[in-house]
TrEMBL record:
Pathway: Mycotoxin biosynthesis. Belongs to the ustYa family. One of its GO terms (biological process) is mycotoxin biosynthetic process. Pfam families: UstYa. This is EF-hand domain-containing protein. InterPro entries: EF_Hand_1_Ca_BS, UstYa-like. It comes from the Eukaryota.
Length: 214
Protein backbone atom coordinates (compact mmCIF):
# COMPACT_ATOMS: atom_id res chain seq x y z
CA UNK A 1 0.00 0.00 0.00
CA UNK A 2 1.45 3.42 -0.94
CA UNK A 3 2.38 5.53 2.06
CA UNK A 4 4.78 8.18 0.77
CA UNK A 5 3.54 11.76 0.48
CA UNK A 6 5.69 12.02 -2.65
CA UNK A 7 3.43 9.70 -4.62
CA UNK A 8 1.04 12.35 -5.90
CA UNK A 9 3.49 14.45 -7.98
CA UNK A 10 4.46 12.41 -11.03
CA UNK A 11 7.43 14.32 -12.45
CA UNK A 12 10.57 15.74 -10.87
CA UNK A 13 10.22 18.90 -12.95
CA UNK A 14 6.71 19.40 -11.58
CA UNK A 15 7.90 18.95 -7.99
CA UNK A 16 10.63 21.52 -8.61
CA UNK A 17 8.14 23.99 -10.09
CA UNK A 18 5.83 23.92 -7.06
CA UNK A 19 6.14 27.09 -5.00
CA UNK A 20 4.15 28.08 -1.93
CA UNK A 21 2.75 31.41 -0.84
CA UNK A 22 0.48 32.60 1.94
CA UNK A 23 -3.04 33.67 1.04
CA UNK A 24 -5.85 34.91 3.27
CA UNK A 25 -9.11 33.34 2.14
CA UNK A 26 -12.17 35.58 1.87
CA UNK A 27 -14.71 33.47 3.72
CA UNK A 28 -17.51 36.02 4.01
CA UNK A 29 -21.01 35.18 2.80
CA UNK A 30 -21.04 38.28 0.62
CA UNK A 31 -17.60 37.99 -0.93
CA UNK A 32 -17.70 39.86 -4.28
CA UNK A 33 -15.80 37.09 -6.07
CA UNK A 34 -15.70 36.88 -9.87
CA UNK A 35 -16.58 33.20 -9.41
CA UNK A 36 -19.83 33.85 -7.51
CA UNK A 37 -23.23 35.20 -8.37
CA UNK A 38 -26.02 34.79 -10.87
CA UNK A 39 -25.11 33.28 -14.24
CA UNK A 40 -23.72 35.64 -16.84
CA UNK A 41 -21.23 35.49 -19.73
CA UNK A 42 -18.67 37.17 -17.46
CA UNK A 43 -19.14 34.59 -14.70
CA UNK A 44 -18.93 31.69 -17.14
CA UNK A 45 -15.84 33.26 -18.67
CA UNK A 46 -14.12 33.44 -15.28
CA UNK A 47 -14.85 29.76 -14.61
CA UNK A 48 -13.89 28.64 -18.11
CA UNK A 49 -10.57 30.45 -17.73
CA UNK A 50 -9.57 28.13 -14.87
CA UNK A 51 -11.45 24.95 -15.78
CA UNK A 52 -10.22 24.85 -19.37
CA UNK A 53 -6.73 26.26 -18.85
CA UNK A 54 -4.87 23.02 -18.20
CA UNK A 55 -3.66 21.02 -21.20
CA UNK A 56 -2.95 17.32 -21.78
CA UNK A 57 0.49 16.16 -20.74
CA UNK A 58 2.67 13.12 -21.34
CA UNK A 59 3.11 10.40 -18.71
CA UNK A 60 6.20 8.23 -19.09
CA UNK A 61 6.50 4.62 -17.96
CA UNK A 62 8.60 5.83 -15.01
CA UNK A 63 5.92 8.32 -13.97
CA UNK A 64 3.29 5.60 -14.28
CA UNK A 65 5.16 3.47 -11.74
CA UNK A 66 5.22 6.39 -9.29
CA UNK A 67 1.45 6.56 -9.67
CA UNK A 68 1.31 2.85 -8.76
CA UNK A 69 -0.44 2.11 -12.04
CA UNK A 70 0.41 -0.71 -14.39
CA UNK A 71 1.05 -0.34 -18.12
CA UNK A 72 -2.22 -2.02 -19.00
CA UNK A 73 -3.25 -2.41 -22.65
CA UNK A 74 -6.28 -0.14 -22.25
CA UNK A 75 -4.20 2.97 -21.48
CA UNK A 76 -4.34 5.66 -24.14
CA UNK A 77 -0.89 6.09 -25.71
CA UNK A 78 0.80 8.60 -27.95
CA UNK A 79 2.42 7.31 -31.13
CA UNK A 80 6.18 6.88 -31.02
CA UNK A 81 6.54 9.46 -33.78
CA UNK A 82 4.79 11.91 -31.42
CA UNK A 83 7.10 11.12 -28.52
CA UNK A 84 5.35 8.08 -27.05
CA UNK A 85 4.13 7.85 -23.49
CA UNK A 86 0.62 7.95 -22.10
CA UNK A 87 -2.09 10.61 -22.03
CA UNK A 88 -2.33 12.43 -18.71
CA UNK A 89 -3.80 15.53 -17.09
CA UNK A 90 -3.50 17.40 -13.80
CA UNK A 91 -6.03 16.14 -11.27
CA UNK A 92 -7.06 19.51 -9.86
CA UNK A 93 -8.51 20.29 -13.29
CA UNK A 94 -11.11 17.58 -12.73
CA UNK A 95 -11.89 18.94 -9.28
CA UNK A 96 -12.50 22.39 -10.77
CA UNK A 97 -14.71 20.78 -13.40
CA UNK A 98 -16.76 19.12 -10.66
CA UNK A 99 -17.17 22.38 -8.76
CA UNK A 100 -18.32 24.06 -11.96
CA UNK A 101 -20.87 21.32 -12.68
CA UNK A 102 -22.27 21.68 -9.15
CA UNK A 103 -22.31 25.48 -9.49
CA UNK A 104 -24.32 25.23 -12.69
CA UNK A 105 -26.71 22.77 -11.05
CA UNK A 106 -27.71 25.48 -8.56
CA UNK A 107 -28.90 27.50 -11.58
CA UNK A 108 -30.35 24.54 -13.44
CA UNK A 109 -32.93 26.46 -15.48
CA UNK A 110 -30.24 28.75 -16.89
CA UNK A 111 -27.91 25.94 -17.97
CA UNK A 112 -30.31 23.10 -18.79
CA UNK A 113 -30.09 23.63 -22.56
CA UNK A 114 -26.33 24.22 -22.82
CA UNK A 115 -24.47 22.29 -20.09
CA UNK A 116 -23.04 19.04 -21.56
CA UNK A 117 -23.45 17.16 -18.27
CA UNK A 118 -27.18 17.95 -18.24
CA UNK A 119 -27.57 17.08 -21.91
CA UNK A 120 -26.22 13.58 -21.19
CA UNK A 121 -29.71 12.76 -19.91
CA UNK A 122 -31.31 12.48 -16.44
CA UNK A 123 -29.72 9.20 -15.36
CA UNK A 124 -26.23 10.05 -16.56
CA UNK A 125 -26.51 13.56 -15.10
CA UNK A 126 -27.49 12.14 -11.70
CA UNK A 127 -24.49 9.81 -11.81
CA UNK A 128 -22.26 12.72 -12.82
CA UNK A 129 -23.42 14.87 -9.89
CA UNK A 130 -23.02 12.05 -7.37
CA UNK A 131 -19.57 11.26 -8.74
CA UNK A 132 -18.46 14.88 -8.39
CA UNK A 133 -19.79 15.20 -4.85
CA UNK A 134 -17.98 12.07 -3.72
CA UNK A 135 -14.72 12.93 -5.50
CA UNK A 136 -14.68 16.30 -3.74
CA UNK A 137 -15.54 14.60 -0.42
CA UNK A 138 -12.55 12.29 -0.80
CA UNK A 139 -10.29 15.19 -1.72
CA UNK A 140 -11.37 17.31 1.27
CA UNK A 141 -10.88 14.44 3.72
CA UNK A 142 -7.54 13.48 2.15
CA UNK A 143 -6.29 17.05 2.56
CA UNK A 144 -8.06 17.65 5.87
CA UNK A 145 -7.51 21.35 6.63
CA UNK A 146 -6.28 21.66 10.21
CA UNK A 147 -6.62 25.44 10.29
CA UNK A 148 -8.62 26.72 13.26
CA UNK A 149 -11.80 28.75 12.85
CA UNK A 150 -12.49 31.53 15.37
CA UNK A 151 -15.92 32.89 16.30
CA UNK A 152 -17.32 36.35 17.02
CA UNK A 153 -20.43 37.85 18.51
CA UNK A 154 -22.26 39.64 15.68
CA UNK A 155 -25.19 42.03 15.92
CA UNK A 156 -28.45 40.31 15.09
CA UNK A 157 -27.12 36.81 15.81
CA UNK A 158 -27.63 34.94 19.07
CA UNK A 159 -25.12 32.21 18.26
CA UNK A 160 -21.34 32.36 17.70
CA UNK A 161 -20.56 33.54 14.15
CA UNK A 162 -17.66 31.74 12.40
CA UNK A 163 -14.82 33.66 10.76
CA UNK A 164 -13.68 31.63 7.75
CA UNK A 165 -11.28 34.32 6.49
CA UNK A 166 -8.12 32.50 7.53
CA UNK A 167 -4.57 32.41 6.22
CA UNK A 168 -3.49 29.37 4.22
CA UNK A 169 -0.20 28.24 2.73
CA UNK A 170 -1.07 27.45 -0.86
CA UNK A 171 0.64 26.06 -3.91
CA UNK A 172 1.22 28.78 -6.45
CA UNK A 173 -1.14 27.56 -9.15
CA UNK A 174 0.34 29.95 -11.71
CA UNK A 175 3.64 28.07 -11.46
CA UNK A 176 1.82 24.77 -11.90
CA UNK A 177 0.05 26.10 -14.98
CA UNK A 178 3.43 27.27 -16.30
CA UNK A 179 4.79 23.74 -15.86
CA UNK A 180 1.70 22.36 -17.58
CA UNK A 181 2.15 24.70 -20.54
CA UNK A 182 5.84 23.81 -20.87
CA UNK A 183 5.09 20.07 -20.65
CA UNK A 184 1.84 19.98 -22.58
CA UNK A 185 1.28 17.86 -25.67
CA UNK A 186 0.19 19.94 -28.66
CA UNK A 187 -1.36 17.43 -31.03
CA UNK A 188 -4.58 17.43 -33.05
CA UNK A 189 -7.29 15.11 -31.72
CA UNK A 190 -6.94 12.72 -34.68
CA UNK A 191 -3.36 11.92 -33.62
CA UNK A 192 -4.76 10.34 -30.45
CA UNK A 193 -5.80 7.09 -32.02
CA UNK A 194 -6.03 3.39 -31.32
CA UNK A 195 -3.03 1.23 -32.19
CA UNK A 196 -4.99 -1.95 -32.79
CA UNK A 197 -3.48 -3.92 -29.91
CA UNK A 198 -5.34 -2.24 -27.06
CA UNK A 199 -7.82 -4.09 -24.87
CA UNK A 200 -10.81 -2.07 -23.71
CA UNK A 201 -11.58 -2.17 -19.99
CA UNK A 202 -14.78 -3.79 -18.83
CA UNK A 203 -16.91 -1.61 -16.59
CA UNK A 204 -15.60 -2.13 -13.02
CA UNK A 205 -18.01 -3.58 -10.48
CA UNK A 206 -20.34 -0.90 -9.20
CA UNK A 207 -19.46 1.59 -11.95
CA UNK A 208 -22.50 2.86 -13.81
CA UNK A 209 -21.69 3.95 -17.36
CA UNK A 210 -22.51 7.59 -18.06
CA UNK A 211 -24.89 6.69 -20.86
CA UNK A 212 -28.65 6.50 -20.99
CA UNK A 213 -30.46 3.17 -21.09
CA UNK A 214 -31.59 2.29 -24.58
Amino acid sequence: MPTSRALTPVAASLIESVEYHDIKFNGSLFNPSVYMGKPSPELDGAWNAIVQRSKPTRITSEMLKKLHKEERPSLIRFMDVDGGGYLGSLEFTHQLHCLNVLRKHTYYDYYKDTEPAILEGPRAYRNHLDHCVDMLRQHVLCNADVGLVTYDWVKGYDTPYPDFSNWHRCRNVEKIWEWNEENSVHLPRERLTRFGDEVDLEHPDGWKPLVEDV
